[in-house]
Amino acid sequence: MVADYAPLLLLFAIAIVIALVMVGGSWLLGPRRPTPAKQSSYECGITPVGSARERFPIHFYLTAMLFIIFDVEVAFLYPFFVILRELPAEVRTFAMGIVGVFTLLLIVGFLYEWKKGALDWEDPIERRRLQPTAEPNPQPALQPVSGEQ
Amino acid sequence: MTLVDLGWALLRIAIMLGFLLGTLPLVIWLERRALAWFQCRVGPNRLGPFGLLQPMADAAKLFFKEEIVPANADRLIWALAPALSLFPALVAAATIPWGPNRLLTPVADVDIGLLYFLAMSSLAAYGVLLAGWSSNNKYSLLGGLRASAQVISYELGMGLALATAILASGSLRMTSIVEMQAEPLWGVVPFLHNWLIFTPWGLVGGALFFICMLAETNRAPFDLPEAESELVAGYQTEYSSMKFAAFFMGEYIAIIAICAIMTTCFLGGYLAPVNFSPIQTLAETQGGVFSVLATITVALMPPIWFLLKVFGLVFSFIWIRATLLRLRYDQLMNLGWRFLIPVGLVNLALLVVYIVFGWVPALVGYALVAGLYFATVGARRPPKRTVELVSQAQPYRPKEAHLG
Question: How far apart, in whole angstroms, are the C-alpha atoms of residue B225 and residue B230?
Fold first, then answer.
């Protein structure tokens, strides 16, 4: 049983060696002639302004949090998926009901975060502006191209 | 574990790494040549026959290039990030069976094969995120953030899509998933194989997985982390020399590995499209030419079928890259969270209905859900505003029809 995993450990060792050789190789093979200009952060040839340790949108944190919830949910479902076919027929419906309730609770949570706007990535003001109206635009943004002149 | 087992394990590891690292230059060459053909260019054609040696030359060049270490970077993490992104790509394919015989079975045929793949492929997010953060470059930071948010979002869809394979076969073991697909099609057509993609749930799951596959490997149209027009090279901006090569290799090996997973779970793995077992029965009774045929179909062909399927998928990646435009970030996230996850959940629910109640309620369920979708969401699609603008405008006519 555990011996099944032994080749994986062997593979891990080999893969780590390959990865470290790839990372360390240029230290041995390549030339090293550093200059301050070379070592500065790349900003399209312009002198870098400030540091990159800046604030960034909260959305990324939120996405990571939501991911953990749903990934754990899917991981919880896997054992049910594996066992479902082996269950006797009279227990199957019951098992389905239990897992159904579990999934339903998570779906309610999913709908809540959806309605709360946790999945919105657009700027809310921009979103209202882009919201399509019932009547066509009174003034087209593009002027029609006048014909052959 | 005896010494003999160890020897076999080493042989299989050598075959797997040989396959991954051997097809890697081929895939890179194919991408460059195929993209060139799509764009009516010639592509690399100087080094070796058809330019086949071009990737090797590029690699050799990168090996001897100077490595530029950014002064502001977090040195240790910056140096380890490429390794962290190459390592999961190298080990992720360890549970995929390449063929039926002992040499080509997976490196380790563990009973959690699919779970192992999911675990290893989500490790890749760390390499990208740490590379973006430690470079201390604004492009890298934004690229790393985008990449990690995208990868974890599509990880969910991928988990739900792979769950169809788990439910249909009742196992996480890759070899059992392939064996399940060796059964006759829908249990009734004896000369065809029951590839998962031929079932309704497999079709939906396979489509989901294909979309997630593109997003997981940061490929067009989901290549926002490396959107060169806005982020230079994303998280790779500050990397040069072999560290850049490590990212590049990791990316392409991950593509090969994930195509192999799609092949195994949805496209029948190493199985041929047609069931060749009658030939084997003939070989046992008649012998002669049939035994030769049986050797070819049973012993030689499976890995070739596998390779053909994997390369078909890789080619579709390139085709899509040449065809589709890059999505906007909010569209990407909407597709992942508001479309793929609900579709994946409904698909799984209907597959459970099939297993518990039989195929009639399941098919009725699919029809109902599709009808409901097109009656509600499909009908409420906002009108396309660009259409009005175009219809109001006069058709554009150049002064001289210079090509006429």
Answer: 10
